[in-house]
Write a structure and sequence with these properties.
The chain is an alpha/beta fold. It has 4 domains: 93 residues, Histidine-containing Protein, Chain: A (2-Layer Sandwich); 139 residues, 3-Layer(bba) Sandwich (Glucose Oxidase, domain 1), CATH 3.50.30.10; 106 residues, Enzyme I, Chain A, domain 2 (Orthogonal Bundle); 308 residues, Phosphoenolpyruvate-binding domains (TIM Barrel), CATH 3.20.20.60. It has 26 helices and 22 strands. The strands form 3 sheets. An 8-stranded mixed beta sheet has the order 7-14-13-9-10-11-12-8. Strands 15-16-17-18-19-20-21-22 form an 8-stranded parallel beta barrel, surrounded by 8 helices. Strands 1, 2, 3, 4, 5 and 6 form a 6-stranded antiparallel beta sheet that branches. Helix 1 packs antiparallel against helix 3, helix 15 runs parallel beside helix 17 and helix 17 crosses helix 18. It is globular and about 85 Å long. Bound molecules: phosphoenolpyruvate (PEP) and magnesium ion (MG). The site of magnesium ion (MG) has 5 residues, from helix 21.
Length: 695
């Protein structure tokens, strides 16, 4: 399908590839497009992406994304220059194999992504209507949890007027644009550094992508043409980014709409520099921002007077949602546009935990909420103070509270917040977002770094690559599947990509001397699969002289939960991946907000799966943990303890809170709670019971 043909139809100097079909069900979106462009730029040749009769510069992100390639579309590549053939060879797999879709961002990212996935499902607001029944209550989607009370501050689209002509020469205007973009790049670098310090590299990367847009050859060419026609630098630049932003916005697709916001954000940054309107917005004390939409830069440069925000546009996967979470600012998105009528200075309560903005609350209501917030903050400070102590129930049963991490930075943070170990290292980030398979040395370096951060006494559970489903990698050929989440995913894929799997296992085993190493396989559905992977791991361990590694599996598929007693005979441990276990038990896509109420891990059917797993391990030398989001849900903790799990592995920030929750409980009482809820018939009943009877 994708080998290279010599000579193109229009010009014999052009190398032309055969047709390449987009196989990803998500189409060819921002992330693979960015990888394509970045890779194309490494070659000296001119490279074009061709669809039907249209040709676009493959080194321009806006041009490539402008094609809006969908699943099933066919394209070709053309290249001219000394390294044309190599360029085409390198680029074909990126298009043909496709890369991870933006919606799978969390999985690809080490820290924030992991935290986002571990957030317990919030059935409260995921499905509620957005239109307010009561005109003072506005509902939205939780972008970042938390509670705030303050006054409204409307943020309007800062449209900066620009003069069409300035009277300067085109050469001067061109230089002015060049200088402004260089300054903008410097600003972005500072914001990226600040964001990296406040959260992590993956969030900071948003601004790296902005810097890439600043240098886009198509946008530059567009602006420079206008400058040659006598327009001012500001006018030319604005026309350029607005043209592309409008094109993206018109595609009627959430991911492209988000890129339109990014383009305008980066575009305005340059305009502010060119027009000297670079000053920051002045915010009143204790304000809650109300906006149609906020840009990533708006969000990253908010000051301490801003307590939270609420927008009409933006989804849970938008960059502002990710940034709000990393900054710890309560935020809701996707609210009704009537919020834009709220007058500046109006008193507001933002309860992002429940996805609600309340206008003109009664003073007593604000008082209550502030008390609740203060006591939550006090509690949090107390939990953090006690985080290093073990989590032992009132009746003397120790529960390990471990961390779900995605990299070394998380590991360091988890240790400082008192983790008893790492219960889940999501290692996909080492495999995604690249065109070639990682080498063993590169993988080993990452595992060794994490093991060192954790130290010799804490268990480290490394999950082998969980690729497939919504996560594709171009260097493993995968056929198109009608139901990728039921297809070749997790361990199923590893066992079909044996060389890569062995490379990963060898790399993990190289960390065995530095920590209490555990290797865990994801998405296991049969004992045969587990046996094959375990035998392979032990064999490699023998070759490398490593014997101290523990081998276990995730319980994510009902078949494994039901037959846990057999797995427990052969595995050292089992960890319940309740995010997937819930998805597969309830037949409800975990990423679909409309099904959030159905995909609730506290449904008695899911609890029965957990019980079957724990019962299956009883009396055998096999511990049971929970590493799905439910482990970090304080309401679920008594049920999980009562069912008999040994370990709870939670997102890093949740460690102190879950440890202190364990200390409040008695295992004996938890057992009674667990048997009562197992008798109930819906998740709603379980939640209600827990709310009413468990303090
Ligand atoms: C799970 O499925 O519960 C789990 C922890 O794995 P992930 O969320 O990475 O699929
Ligand atoms: Mg899973």
């Amino acid at each position: 399908m994708s080998e290279i043909l010599n000579s193109g139809p229009d010009n014999s100097e052009w190398e032309v590839s055969k047709e390449i079909t987009i196989i990803s069900p998500h189409g060819f979106h921002a992330r693979p497009a960015a990888i394509l462009v970045k890779t194309a730029k490494k070659f000296a040749s001119d490279i074009r992406l061709v669809k039907d009769d249209r040709r676009q510069n493959a080194k321009s992100l806006v041009a490539v994304m402008g094609f809006a390639l969908q699943h099933g579309d066919t394209v070709a590549l053309e290249a001219k220059g000394a390294d044309a053939k190599e360029a085409i060879e390198a680029l074909i797999p990126i298009i043909a194999g496709d890369m991870e879709d933006e919606s799978g961002q969390s999985a690809a990212q080490p820290a924030g992504g992991a935290a986002a996935r571990d957030t317990p499902p919030s059935p409260v607001n995921a499905n509620t209507p957005r239109l307010p029944a009561d005109k003072s209550v506005f509902r939205g989607i939780t972008a970042s949890p938390g509670i705030a009370a303050g006054v409204a501050k409307r943020v309007t689209d800062s449209d900066i007027p620009v003069a069409e002509n300035s009277g300067l020469t085109p050469a001067n205007e061109k230089q002015a644009l060049f200088d402004a973009r260089a300054l903008a790049k410097q600003d972005l670098k500072e914001i990226a550094d600040k964001t990296e310090t406040a959260s992590d590299a993956s969030h900071a990367a948003i601004f790296g992508a902005h810097a890439e847009l600043l240098e886009d050859p198509e946008m530059t060419e567009y602006a420079e043409k206008l400058i040659l026609n006598g327009k001012s630098a500001a006018f030319a630049w604005k026309s350029s980014y607005e043209t592309y932003a409008k094109r993206f916005a018109a595609l009627n697709n959430e991911l492209f709409a988000a890129r339109a916001v990014d383009l305008r954000d980066v575009g305005r940054r340059v305009i502010r520099i060119l027009t000297g309107t670079n000053e920051k917005t002045a915010y009143p004390e204790n304000c809650i921002l109300i906006a149609e939409e906020l840009t990533p830069s708006d969000t990253a440069s908010l000051d301490e007077k801003v307590l939270g925000f609420c927008t009409v546009k933006g989804g849970a996967t938008s960059h502002i949602a990710i940034l709000a979470r990393s900054l710890g600012l309560p935020a809701i998105v996707g609210t009704d546009e009537s919020i834009l009528e709220i007058a500046d200075g109006s008193p507001l309560i933002l309860n992002a935990d429940e996805g609600v903005l309340r206008l003109n609350p009664a003073p007593a209501e604000i008082d209550d909420l502030m008390k609740k917030r203060a006591s939550m903050a006090e509690r949090r400070a107390n939990d953090v103070k006690n985080a290093a102590k073990p989590a032992v129930t009132r009746d003397g049963n120790r529960i390990e509270v471990a961390a779900n991490i995605g990299g070394t930075r998380d590991a360091n943070q988890a240790v400082s917040l008192g983790c008893d170990g790492v219960g889940l290292l999501r290692s996909e980030f080492l495999f995604l977002g690249r065109n070639t398979a990682p080498e063993e040395d590169e993988l080993a370096e990452a595992y060794v770094g994490i093991a060192r951060a954790l130290g010799p006494d804490k268990p480290l559970v490394v999950r082998t690559m969980d690729i497939g489903g919504d996560k594709q990698i171009p260097y493993i050929k995968q056929d198109k599947e009608d139901n990728p989440f039921l297809g070749v995913r997790g361990l199923r894929l590893s066992l079909r990509a044996l060389e890569l799997f062995k490379t990963q296992i060898r790399a993990i085993l190289r960390a065995s001397k530095l920590c209490k190493l555990h290797i865990m396989f994801p998405m296991v559905s049969t004992l045969d699969e587990f046996r094959e992977a375990a035998a392979l791991t032990r064999g490699l361990g023998r070759e490398m002289g490593v014997s101290e590694v523990k081998i276990g599996l995730m319980i994510e598929v009902p078949s494994a939960a039901i037959l846990a007693r057999h797995f427990a005979e052969e595995a050292d441990f089992m960890s319940l991946g309740t995010n997937d276990l819930t998805q597969y038990t309830m037949a409800a896509d975990r990423g679909n907000p409309k099904l959030a109420e159905i995909a609730d891990g506290l449904n008695p059917a899911v609890l029965a799966m957990i019980k079957s797993t724990v019962d299956g391990a009883r009396g055998k030398n096999c511990w049971v943990g929970v590493c799905g989001g439910i482990a970090g849900d304080p309401a679920a903790v008594p049920v999980l303890i009562g069912l008999g799990v040994d370990e709870l592995s939670v997102s890093v920030p949740a460690i102190p809170q879950i440890k202190s929750r364990v200390r409040e409980l008695s295992k004996g009482e938890c057992e009674k709670i667990a048997s009562s809820v197992l008798e109930l018939s819906t998740a709603g009943e379980v939640r209600k019971y827990l709310k009413q009877t468990v303090s």
